[in-house]
Amino acid sequence: MNYVLVFRPEVREELNEAYDWYENQQTGLGDDFLDSIDEVLNRICQMPESYPIVYRDVRRSVVRRFPYLVYYRIVSSRVIITAIFHSRRDPKALKIRT
Fold this sequence. Notes:
Belongs to the RelE toxin family. This is Plasmid stabilization system. Keywords: Toxin-antitoxin system. InterPro entries: RelE/ParE_toxin (IPR007712), RelE/ParE_toxin_dom_sf (IPR035093), TA_system_RelE-like_toxin (IPR051803). Pfam families: ParE_toxin. The protein has 98 residues and is of the alpha+beta class. It has one domain (4-97): 2-Layer Sandwich (YaeB-like fold). It has 2 helices and 5 strands; from the N terminus they run E-H-H-E-E-E-E. Strands 1-5-4-3-2 form a 5-stranded mixed β-sheet. A hairpin with a 2-residue loop joins strand 4 (68-75) and strand 5 (78-86). Helix 1 (9-25) runs antiparallel to helix 2 (29-46). The longest helix is centred in the middle third of the chain and has 18 residues, at 29-46. The protein is globular and about 40 Å long.
């Protein structure tokens, strides 16, 4: 089955902030971060049910190389990305997004 990725508005803002932060640390690191996010999103689209449920129907995937987590829900043929979250942030902030 082909899944369509849908991003909540907050996710794009989170990605932009993380990209800017990494790019300010070292030129090109922001692009590496986005490549790692793309890799995770591709894996999620291929096998969305293979990742653990962490809260209600929200699943989580770990980003390689960077301390980020991707939270998402599966609704019909859509994968709704609810957050791309730094792993040291308080996960309680995510509960309001479900």
